[in-house]
Amino acid sequence: MSSLSKNFSKYLMYFALMLFAVGFTSCSNDDDVDDLIVEPTGSIVVQDNQTVNDGQITISNVTVGQDSWVVAVMGGDESTNNFITEPVMVDEGSNSDVQLTFNDDVNFTGGEAGDEISIKLYADNATQGTQGTWDTFDDPIRGANNTLVMETITVFVEDDSNGQAFSDFDTNEDGFLDADEIGDTYQNDFTTWDVDADGGLNEDEFYATTFGNTDVDNDDLISEDEWNQGYASMYGNYSEDTDFATFDTDADGSLSSEEWRTGFGESTWFTTYDADADTSLTEDEWNTGIFNDWDTDADGMISEDEYNTYSPYSNNW
Fold it and tell me: DSSP 3-state assignment of 57?
C-alpha cells in the first residue's frame, strides 16, 4: 500500500473515533438532562384565628415555583385528599389574598374553641392528567425532609342558632353597629365584676374581669389557644409582645391570674379605659373602651367584619 493510502486510512480512523467520542458525550449530556428532576416548590402565609365569612377564608399569600392548587382539609386529615374547599389554582410566582370557599357539607363543630384546618399545596402536573383541572396526578408539594408544605390554623363559624347574628344587633339596619348597639353583642356582667359594689371597676377588678373573660373553659388558667383568641379579639393593642411564653413566666403552658396581672401591669390597658383618670371605671367607660378596641379601623362604627372577629370571643363571656 502506498504511503498516501496509509495516511488516508489513518485519517479516516481518527475521524471515525472523533465522531464516536462526540456522539457518546452528547448522549451522556442528554441523559443527564433527562435525569434532572425539578421538584415543585411553594410556601403559604395565612392568618390564624379567622372567622368564616360567607363560607370563605383568605390566604394572605401563596408563592409557588409552578402552577399549583391551594386547598384545605380538616385538622387530622393532612395526609389525605379529603378536601373541605374547592381547589383554587394559583399561577407560578406570588399570589396575594387567595380566597378559599368551603364545601356546603363541611361538618364544623363550631363553638368557642373553633376548628383546626390545614392549608395544603398541590403542583399541577404538566405531563399527566388534565392541566388546569385538579386530579390525582397532581401531587402535594413537599419541602425539607419530605414534609408537606402546609399551614394549620383555627377557624370560627358564626352560630346563628342563638340569634347572635350581626343583623340581629344592627337594629337600624345601616350595616354597622354604633356605640348603643354594641352593648347588646356581649354579656355585660358589670355588677358582678364590681366585686366591692362601689359602682366602678378598680384596677384589680378590671384585670380579674379580663382574665375571667379570656378563660373560656373556666379552669382559672389561660391556655395558649385562649391567649391567641383573646389577643386577636381584644387586648392586642396593649401587649407589645405577642409571645405567649413571655407572659408564661413559669413555663408551665398556661397563665395564672397572677401572671396575667403582672404581664399587663405596665401596659396602658386600664388607663386607656379610665378616661377621667380617677382609678375607677364606670360602666360607660368600660363600654366605650370595649367599643374602641373592637372598632379596629377607628371609624366610630363596628362593621360586620369587625363584629365577626370579636363575636366568637365575646360570646364566651
Answer: strand
CA distances to 101, 108, 181, 199, 306 from 105, in Å: 12, 9, 34, 49, 26
Q: How far apart are CA 308 and CA 165, in angstroms?
A: 9
Hey, how many other C-beta atoms are within 10 angstroms of the C-beta on 163? 9
Indicate the DSSP class of residue 229.
H
Taking the C-alpha atoms of residue 65 and residue 99, their distance in angstroms, rounded to an integer, is: 20
pTM attached to this predicted model: 0.50
Task: For helices 304-314 and 283-294, give the axis angle rounded to 10 degrees.
Answer: 120
**Chain segment 135-194, per-residue pLDDT in tens:** 999 999 999 999 999 999 999 986 544 446 788 889 999 999 998 898 888 888 899 999
Q: Which fold has domain 42-156?
A: Immunoglobulin-like (2.60.40)
- Running DSSP on this structure, what letter comes out for residue 154? E
**Do the Cβ atoms of 44 and 149 come closer than 8 Å?**
yes
Q: Where do we find the cell 357539607?
A: 105
In the beta sheet, which residues pair with residue 120?
Answer: 71, 150
- Render pLDDT for 260-305 as a digit per residue (tens, 0 to 9): 999 888 889 999 999 999 999 999 999 999 999 999 899 999 999 8
Dump the DSSP string for 257-297.
HHHHHHHHTTSSHHHHH-TT-SS-B-HHHHHHHHHHHH-TT
The residue ranges of every structural domain in the chain are: 1-36, 42-156, 160-314
